[in-house]
Design goal:
The protein is an alpha+beta fold. It has five helices and five strands; from the N terminus they run ααβααββαββ. It has helices at residues 15-40, 43-52, 134-145, 150-155, 184-196, and strands at 121-122, 159-167, 173-180, 203-205, 208-220.
Length: 223
C-alpha cells in the first residue's frame, strides 16, 4: 500500500520560493561587498601612490666611511712615590744578637811570601859564569862538536865568530845571537854549537846567582 503525501508535506511547491530567496540574499551579499570596496578605496591615497612610486625604483647604496679607531693617547699616571717611614731619633732599636747567626768560621790564612827575583841581565859581575870543567873542557867540547861547513871550506872562508848569549841563574843558555859575523855559513855553525852546550856555572853578584850576558869567540881556521 503506497503512502500518500499531503500538500503541507510536499516541498515541490515551495522550491521556487526558496530559489528567489536565495537569489535575493546572494545579490545582497555581492552588493554589500562592492560598496565596502568602493568605500575603503581612498582616491587621494591612490593618487599619492601613483605620484611617488616611479616605474623603476633605484636604491643607492652609500658606502659607510671607516672611522679610524681612536688611539689611547692618555698620558699614563706617574708612579706613586715610595713611602719612606721616618723613624724618630728617640725611638730605640733593639740590639742585634749575633750569636744566632750560623755561618762558617772565617779562616785567616797567611799569604805566601814571594821571593823577589832579580831579572836584570848583568854585563859584568863579581863572579863570571864559566863552562863546567874549565877552559880545557870547553876547548874539547868545541873541537868535538864543531863541523866546518863544506861550502865555507871550498870558498876558503875563515875567521872568528863572536857569539853572544845569556847564562841564566840555573846555568841554562838563551838569547843566542851573533855579535860579530864572518859569513852566513860560519855564523850558523857557531850558533848551533853554542845552543848545544850544557848548562854553565851561573855568575854571582852580591852573593846571589844572577843572569849574565856573555860573549864567546869561536875561531874557524883552515889547515
Amino acid at each position: 500500500m503506497e503512502a500518500k503525501k499531503t500538500k503541507k508535506a510536499n516541498l515541490e511547491n515551495k522550491r521556487l520560493g526558496f530559489f528567489f530567496v536565495g537569489l535575493v540574499m546572494t545579490g545582497s551579499i555581492v552588493g554589500m561587498a562592492i560598496n565596502y570596496t568602493e568605500a575603503s578605496a581612498d582616491p587621494y591615497l591612490e593618487k599619492i601612490v601613483h605620484q611617488t612610486l616611479p616605474d623603476e625604483v633605484i636604491f643607492e647604496i652609500v658606502e659607510e666611511e671607516e672611522v679610524p679607531e681612536k688611539l689611547d693617547t692618555q698620558t699614563p699616571a706617574p708612579p706613586m712615590p715610595e713611602i719612606i717611614e721616618i723613624v724618630p731619633d728617640d725611638k730605640k732599636i733593639p740590639p742585634i744578637d749575633f750569636t744566632i747567626i750560623d755561618e762558617d768560621p772565617v779562616i785567616i790564612t797567611k799569604e805566601p811570601e814571594f821571593e823577589i827575583i832579580d831579572e836584570i841581565i848583568y854585563e859584568s859581575v863579581a863572579i863570571e859564569p864559566s863552562f863546567p870543567g874549565g877552559d880545557a873542557e870547553f876547548a874539547n867540547f868545541i873541537k868535538s862538536n864543531i863541523v866546518y861547513p863544506e861550502l865555507a871550506s871550498e870558498m876558503g872562508e875563515q875567521g872568528i865568530v863572536y857569539v853572544k848569549f845569556v847564562v841564566n841563574r840555573d846555568g841554562s843558555i838563551e838569547q843566542v845571537s851573533i855579535r860579530q859575523s864572518v859569513t852566513e855559513s860560519l855564523d850558523k855553525e857557531a850558533m848551533r854549537v853554542v845552543k848545544k852546550m850544557p848548562n854553565w856555572i851561573p855568575g854571582e853578584q852580591g852573593g846571589k846567582k844572577v843572569r849574565v850576558s856573555y860573549t864567546l869567540p869561536i875561531s874557524f881556521r883552515l889547515g
